[in-house]
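Practice problem 4.
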């Protein structure tokens, strides 16, 4: 009996040691590089992660540092100095679904990718000091110093920020279809292919703009309220071209 007890204790200590070694090894640059190569070789994405870290002050979260992500043979979709992934009980059955995903200090290209959506989802997507870029036919914009929240975040091939969600968005600087603005604030939701802007505002052309509007699934706009104050905007576009 003593021999069996010593054997079980030895096996337990070896198991604990193996877990500790794996925990330490998992936070090395070698492990981050191995994970990046494995995902790149076994999916349609090209991923690069410089380092993976974990802190016991936040046991339900891991942090990826120096992250870049792109679809094969496509422009870069994401570059972030830091990505925080908070775990969720839902991951027991859906491993790619997180409680929250936070992107910090980088760039996110929200132009729809060719038939492939981002490989993860979350209850909440948060952006902290990010840049957003898009250059498709409908929306051409470049936003800097972006802080935002999207709930829930379920990206699709045609909508990187997802559908049927609520969002809050702020940007220090933004150029939308060639028109620059600053101190941009937007709150709204996307529901059944309809964009609802329950409140928006920005500093525009030496003045300010605020309002409430919505865009139907067919692309038509309904402006419920629009207030312009001291705006000095000049454009070569016709009114029809401007609103389209």
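Answer key:
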């Amino acid at each position: 009996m003593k021999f069996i007890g010593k054997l079980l204790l030895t096996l337990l200590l070896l198991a604990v040691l193996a877990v500790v070694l794996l925990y330490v090894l998992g936070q090395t640059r070698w492990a981050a590089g191995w994970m990046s190569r494995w995902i790149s070789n076994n999916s349609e994405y090209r991923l690069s992660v410089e380092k993976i870290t974990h802190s016991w002050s936040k046991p339900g979260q891991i942090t990826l540092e120096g992250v870049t992500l792109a679809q094969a043979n496509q422009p870069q979709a994401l570059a972030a100095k830091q990505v925080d992934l908070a775990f969720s009980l839902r991951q027991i059955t859906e491993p790619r679904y997180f409680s929250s995903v936070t992107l910090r200090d980088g760039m996110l290209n929200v132009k729809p990718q060719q038939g492939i959506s981002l490989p993860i989802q979350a209850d909440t997507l948060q952006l902290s000091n990010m840049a957003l870029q898009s250059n498709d036919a409908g929306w051409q914009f470049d936003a800097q110093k972006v802080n935002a929240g999207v709930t829930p975040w379920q990206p699709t091939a045609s909508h990187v920020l997802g559908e049927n969600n609520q969002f809050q968005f702020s940007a220090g600087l933004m150029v939308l279809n060639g028109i620059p603005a600053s101190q941009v604030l937007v709150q709204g939701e996307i529901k059944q292919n309809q964009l609802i802007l329950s409140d928006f505002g920005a500093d525009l052309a030496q003045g300010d703009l605020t309002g409430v509007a919505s865009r139907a699934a067919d692309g038509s706009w309904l402006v419920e309220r629009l207030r312009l104050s001291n705006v000095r905007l000049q454009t070569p576009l016709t009114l029809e071209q401007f609103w389209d």
